[in-house]
Amino acid sequence: MEFRQLGGSGFKVPALSFGTGTFGGGNEFFKAWGESDVAEATRLVDVCLEAGLNMFDSADIYSNGLAEEILGQAIKGRRDRVIISTKSTFRFGEGPNDVGSSRYHLIRSIEGSLRRLGTDYIDLFQLHGFDALTPAEEVLGTLDDLVRAGKIRYIGCSNFSGWHLMKGLAVSDRYGLSRYVAHQAYYSLVGRDYEWELMPLGLDQKVSAVVWSPLGWGRLTGKIRRGQPLPETSRLQNQRVTDIGPPVADEYVYGVVDAIDEVAKETGKTVPQIALNWLLQRPTVASVIIGARNEEQLRQNLGAVGWNLTPAQVAKLDAASATTLPYPYWHQRGFAERNPPPVG
Length: 344
Prior knowledge:
Blueprint: E1 3-5, E2 12-14, E3 16-19, H1 28-31, H2 38-50, E4 55-57, H3 66-74, E5 83-88, H4 103-117, E6 122-127, H5 136-148, E7 152-158, H6 162-175, E8 180-186, H7 198-205, E9 208-212, H8 239-244, H9 250-267, H10 271-280, E10 285-290, H11 295-302, H12 311-321, H13 329-333
Parallel strand pairs: 3-4, 3-10, 4-5, 5-6, 6-7, 7-8, 8-9, 9-10
Antiparallel strand pairs: 1-2
Helix pairs in contact: 2-3, 2-11, 3-4, 5-6, 9-12
């Protein structure tokens, strides 16, 4: 397993990490992802560690804390061998302060995650989303206190806009506070919005991408093609999941999958392996989070590392997945001499 530097820190993370949203299946939303119990989760952790994948990503809201509890049981006795990444910001309780990134909620969230995970520190803690109501100084000051207390090693964010991220970095620089080193962001061959502004920002400010949903919300599993029904176990069958997932035109997905199929014939790899490998060659990407309902899916996803697509194959996938950029990005791309894009 290749290890990569995480942003501007001295910390290294595996190119692939494992997402625990499939642990627990605590409600209908998360059952659409998976519902691994402690025994199955322990086996999946075993397989990951055998392959050199030692970073496991979770969040307090995953099955209402159950995913963290199961992960804690699955790594019991081997905490020193793993990297734990988790998140909070979304509502976790009924009270008026049980949501957001206030000092009150962040401290309660960290304490709860530590208890559920059965550990006394979190390697990478990320704000799960932006809180426009809490001053950035309060947010970063609290996170810095938690770092200094040894409860967090590194901090990151998730699902931020470019200005959200840059505002936080500016506050950290101004007051000498811990700095975001990671941005957990949606990025895939059928969702390349990350490249417009967040990727150039990440390059400039040394903030790495930790990619979630690299298979485009289940669209790049190899089971979705023109004229075929959705697989019965796809999360796309769940109306609540699709309602909040990224909207993508069917014909666009089919065109991208057609290009992946061509590359698959050239490489002997599967559709998911090619989609994951493409991401691993993009600027700023430090780690790609893979999920799996079972050991078979996990082993297939692990096959995305140890080889690389050729430049010609990358170019073919780039062309098939290209879309018209929104303003001002299409305008900026017209002046590459002084404003070169981070990718071709």
